[in-house]
């Protein structure tokens, strides 16, 4: 860190990486959305032109976020959180439906997606709750309290329905673990995901059969230790109930396009022209890049619009095709650097609030990064979530900007107070 | 632990993505080529195929535009079917059937509605084409033959098949390739290089302009014209002479190895294999299994050479020093060995070499042949030495000429005889192979090989590999192998008595009847017994009529071999035809009009029909 004589000292590395990602994002959005009717870089009728406006507005947002006294975020965390929850509830009355999900407010042509901002407000609320002197993450009551803070927005988002965005709330298990949550919850989460996936893959009945067999074997193996049979039965029943409820939700709550997306990931569909089309085209585009890529605006798959939603969730396939292995690696490295830097700075925080918030930011960015690039490169299920700072969209960009810059502010203030 | 779990996961994902990206972008770069890219449409621009000229620069084949009516089914809008069918000259039912097939093949890719319109049909159709959306006219280039002969030499072009596409990545489905004759042999020279255009497509398969502003596009390069060694006039005349006969004529310029004429009969008009009637005509030619017009008899037919082969026996006798020109042998109505006799016709006896050749005495050559084989300790060694001498004349193997079809013929080896006589349980002697002396028995030659050894005799001891290419216009070259002399095992001095013998054949011997004023020819008649199988039974047919010749005797300009299936005796058909060909080539006009009339009006169709009449028939009448 270069020594700074300013009153507050911001972490310029994070800011630099942020600028780099946003700039590279725009360059790729330009290429992915370029059309014959475009009139230069500043054509605001074009997608890339609009993204330029969103970037401009995010600069104003950054100035606001940094100008606000850092204590404000801690003090008003609960209020902000409740207001944001109201905005989610309000969607059920005033929301606009796009592609089957009622996730947007329409402000005179500009659509705002509140769920993109709720990540930051939930992180603030969670940080406030966990950093309270009376809160102990080893206490079951406090664990439940944290769970409610996370689950409220997640459930509201699932009901929109937008399972992709809701999935991101799983990220909060990382800050909680850091603050003393038992490691078994991490494993439990993993186990739940496994049960979830196998239920969708093989059906609840077979999962139930498997669970019964497995607990039977475990019970038999541990019989010398005189295990409590009721405990085993409870665990088995719990697992089976989970499987059946997943099955119920999948078949009765999820929309067909959600079901389709999961089916592709689980290899239930192999039709290259059908619903597996996105991932297939994205992989082709990335493969096309080779070592150095086809060059900016020269990607054939990008130009031919073969990858749907390429400027939003699939923007990384443009990077892969036009900038090749080299360009893709730069993006991956920038994300890894940003997230590890946030974790590093979070550990340096003097107060717990800053640390929990920083961990939350790192975990949210990580999950987006992991799920998005995993999806675009075809190693993870298709879950429609954006690549932070990169994908087209005002709400997403502003949401991530606010998320990151509150931490930049908290971190900078800490420098000051240190 | 609590501090490192998230960092560890971040780093692990970074590595995971690095590996995945490396695999997709670097390791598994199979989809890298432009042609395999689904976003790039490759369009080809076909060059003009090279023309062919004869040795006197007479144009043999050029190109003509042809127009195919094409359809892209998904673009078709409702139309006045009746009017359109009227323009295309097809019925409404046919039209519906064609459109249905096109749609089944692909709604988005073009299919042919009506192939190869002529210019007149095209003109009337092209004005109204805009009214019918989804239909358009595709221009292609087809061969246009300027002559109605030489189909066997020029060959033909046809659509490539899957086997070719797999072997050679240059060709795409639906393209044309030389499939026979010169078209096949000189495909690379004639075809030129097609131009390529890369068109960027969007996901609806619509064109959105040239890929990278066309930097990878190439222009087509026209094929090279080629000049053939054949003489179109001679070729045409030979084909006329061979009407209603089966067999062939090969004429070679001895001093260069250039093929002056290469005629197989029956043949066909090359224009039959161009245009809308192509497949109908091809089927008709292909299934004519008796006359076999697609079968090149002069390159593919393996025949017993008969008496012309005796000239080689004489040469080998001299070369092996087993006979002198003065040695005379008696003929007792044939050659007697053991209790058998190999018959001969009536002629003075005894005869020495020149007389032996002039009178084609079987007994004389049996004696010489026996001496050649018996010169060596065993008949096996004798046969192999004899075979080596023959192979130096280009016999018993592919000659190496530049046409894509051919046969080796057969010059038997000692191994071959060991096998058929079951050696060593049964011994065999030179007498077991005595038919070889008179060009019967196991010896088989193609008419091309016969013309080649005649050229070697005309040159008194060497030949050039026969070839059809005179010049590739542009680079102005021909392959080097056609300008190298091949020397025979027999020395030059040994040729003079044989040449004199062949001259006597023409002067007073078996070919005296075909003498042409002012031409000093050397020749040798042949009458070859032959058999066929009818209903599993071996049946003898009327003898083949054979004649080989070169002229003039000194400084030969043409060496020729004529083969007429079942023509009875040498001078009857083959001799006359050879005489007329030589006169036509050397003098440009025919003085023996009596002979010409006989040949032009003569027909052997009745002879060819005999074995298939189902009736008992007699031969050699």
What's this, in brief?
With 418 residues, chain A is mainly alpha-helical.
The strand line-up of the biggest sheet of chain A is 1-2-3
Question: What is the helix content of chain A?
Answer: 55-70%
Please give the largest β-sheet of chain B.
Answer: 6 strands, mixed
Question: Based on DSSP secondary structure assignment, what is the total number of beta strands of chain B?
Answer: 20
Through-space gap between termini of chain B: 112 Å
Q: List segments of chain B where confidence is low: pLDDT < 50 over at least 5 consecutive residues.
A: none
Query: What is the name of the CATH class of the largest domain in chain B?
Result: Alpha Beta
Computed CA radius of gyration of chain A, to the nearest angstrom: 23 Å
* Global Rg of chain B: 32 Å
Backbone shape of chain A: globular
| CATH topology group of the largest domain in chain B | Beta-lactamase
Structural class of chain A: mainly alpha
Order of helices and strands of chain A: HHHHEEEHHHHHHHHHHHHH
The CATH architecture of the largest domain in chain B can be given as 3-Layer(aba) Sandwich
Q: Sheet with the most strands of chain A? A: 3 strands, antiparallel
Overall mean pLDDT of chain B stands at 87
Average pLDDT value of chain A?
84
Strand tally of chain A is: 3
**First CA to last CA of chain A: what distance?**
15 Å
């Amino acid at each position: 860190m270069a020594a700074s004589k300013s009153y507050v000292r911001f972490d310029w590395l994070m800011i630099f990486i942020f600028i780099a990602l946003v700039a590279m994002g725009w360059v790729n959005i330009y290429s992915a959305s370029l059309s014959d009717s475009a009139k230069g870089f500043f054509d605001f009728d074009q997608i890339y032109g609009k993204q330029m406006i969103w970037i401009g507005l995010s600069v104003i947002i950054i100035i606001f976020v940094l100008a606000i006294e850092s204590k404000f975020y801690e003090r008003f965390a609960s209020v902000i959180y409740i207001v944001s929850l109201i905005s989610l509830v309000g969607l059920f009355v005033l929301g606009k439906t796009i592609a089957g999900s009622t996730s947007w407010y329409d402000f005179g042509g500009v659509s705002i997606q509140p769920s993109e901002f709720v990540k930051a407000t939930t992180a603030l609320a969670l940080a406030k709750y966990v950093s309270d002197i009376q809160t102990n993450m080893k206490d079951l009551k406090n664990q439940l309290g944290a769970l409610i803070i996370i689950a409220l927005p997640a459930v509201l988002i699932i009901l929109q329905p937008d399972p992709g965005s809701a999935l991101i709330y799983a990220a909060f298990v990382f800050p909680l673990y850091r603050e003393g949550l038992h490691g078994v919850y991490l494993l439990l989460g993993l186990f739940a995901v496994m049960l979830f996936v196998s239920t969708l893959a093989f059906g609840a009945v077979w999962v139930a059969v498997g669970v019964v067999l497995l607990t039977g074997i475990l019970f038999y193996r541990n019989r010398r230790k005189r295990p409590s049979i009721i405990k085993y039965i409870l665990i088995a029943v719990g697992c089976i109930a989970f499987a059946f409820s997943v099955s119920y939700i999948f078949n009765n709550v999820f929309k067909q396009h959600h079901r389709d997306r999961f089916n592709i990931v689980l290899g239930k569909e192999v039709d290259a022209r059908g619903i597996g089309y996105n991932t297939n085209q994205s992989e082709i585009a990335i493969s096309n890049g080779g070592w150095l890529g086809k060059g900016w605006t020269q990607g054939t798959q990008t130009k031919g619009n073969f990858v749907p939603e390429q400027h939003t969730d699939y923007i990384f396939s443009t990077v892969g095709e036009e900038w090749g292995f080299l360009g893709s690696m730069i993006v991956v490295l920038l994300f890894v650097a940003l997230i590890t830097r946030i974790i590093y700075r979070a550990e340096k925080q003097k107060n717990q609030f800053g640390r929990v918030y920083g961990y939350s930011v790192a975990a949210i960015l990580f999950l987006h990064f992991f799920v998005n690039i995993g999806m675009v490169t075809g190693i993870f299920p298709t879950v429609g979530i954006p690549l932070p700072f990169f994908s087209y969209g005002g709400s997403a960009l502003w949401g991530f900007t606010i998320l990151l810059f509150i931490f930049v502010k908290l971190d900078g203030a800490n420098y000051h107070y240190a | 632990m609590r501090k490192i779990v998230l960092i560890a996961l971040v780093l692990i994902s970074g590595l995971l993505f690095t590996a995945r990206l490396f695999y997709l972008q670097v390791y598994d770069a199979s989809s890298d080529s432009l042609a395999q890219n689904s976003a790039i449409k490759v369009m080809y621009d076909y060059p003009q195929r090279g023309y062919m000229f004869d040795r006197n620069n007479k144009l043999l084949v050029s190109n003509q535009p042809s127009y195919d009516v094409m359809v892209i089914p998904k673009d078709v809008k409702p139309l006045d079917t009746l009017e359109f069918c009227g323009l295309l000259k097809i019925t409404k039912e046919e039209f519906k059937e064609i459109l249905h097939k096109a749609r089944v093949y692909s709604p988005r890719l073009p299919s042919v509605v009506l192939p190869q319109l002529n210019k007149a049909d095209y003109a009337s159709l092209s004005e109204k084409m805009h009214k019918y959306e989804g239909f358009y006219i595709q221009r292609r280039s087809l061969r246009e033959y300027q002559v109605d002969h030489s189909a066997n030499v020029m060959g033909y072009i046809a659509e490539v098949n899957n086997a070719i596409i797999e072997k050679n990545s240059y060709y795409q489905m639906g393209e044309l390739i030389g499939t026979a004759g010169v078209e096949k042999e000189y495909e690379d020279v004639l075809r030129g290089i097609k131009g390529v255009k890369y068109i960027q497509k969007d996901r609806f398969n619509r064109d959105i302009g040239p890929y990278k502003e066309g930097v990878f596009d190439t222009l087509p390069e026209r094929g090279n014209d080629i000049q053939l060694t054949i003489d179109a006039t001679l070729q045409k005349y030979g084909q006329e002479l061979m009407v209603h006969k089966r067999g062939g004529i090969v004429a070679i310029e001895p001093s260069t190895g250039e093929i002056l004429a290469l005629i197989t009969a029956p043949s066909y008009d090359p224009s039959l294999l161009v245009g809308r009637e192509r497949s109908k005509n091809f089927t008709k030619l292909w299934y004519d299994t008796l006359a076999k017009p697609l079968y090149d008899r002069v390159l593919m037919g393996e025949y017993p050479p008969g008496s012309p082969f005796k000239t080689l026996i004489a040469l080998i006798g001299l070369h092996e020093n087993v006979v002198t020109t003065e040695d005379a042998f008696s003929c007792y109505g044939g050659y007697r060995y053991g209790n058998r006799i190999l018959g001969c016709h009536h002629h003075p006896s005894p005869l020495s070499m020149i007389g032996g050749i002039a009178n084609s005495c079987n007994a004389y050559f049996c004696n010489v042949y026996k001496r050649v084989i018996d010169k060596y300790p065993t008949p096996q060694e004798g046969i192999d030495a004899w075979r080596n001498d023959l192979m130096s004349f280009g016999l018993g193997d592919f000659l190496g000429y530049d046409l894509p079809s051919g046969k080796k013929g057969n010059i038997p080896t000692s191994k071959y005889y060991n096998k058929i006589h079951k050696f060593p349980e049964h011994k065999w002697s030179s007498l077991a192979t005595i038919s070889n002396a008179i060009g019967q028995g196991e010896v088989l030659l193609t008419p091309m090989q016969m013309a080649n050894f005649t050229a070697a005799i005309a040159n008194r001891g060497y030949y050039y590999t026969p070839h059809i290419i005179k010049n590739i216009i542009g680079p102005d070259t021909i392959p080097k192998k056609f300008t190298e002399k091949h020397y025979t095992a027999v020395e030059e001095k040994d040729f003079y008595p044989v040449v004199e013998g062949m001259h006597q054949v023409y002067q007073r011997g078996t070919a005296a009847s075909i003498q042409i004023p002012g031409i000093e020819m050397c020749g040798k008649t042949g009458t070859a017994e032959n058999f066929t199988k009818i209903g599993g039974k071996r049946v003898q047919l009327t003898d083949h009529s054979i004649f080989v010749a070169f002229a003039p005797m000194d400084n030969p300009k043409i060496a020729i071999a004529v083969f007429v299936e079942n023509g009875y005796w040498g001078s009857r058909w083959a001799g006359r035809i050879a005489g007329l060909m030589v006169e036509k080539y050397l003098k440009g006009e025919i003085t023996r009009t009596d002979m010409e009339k006989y040949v032009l009006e003569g027909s052997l169709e009745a002879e060819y029909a005999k074995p298939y009449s189902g009736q008992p028939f007699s031969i050699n009448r």
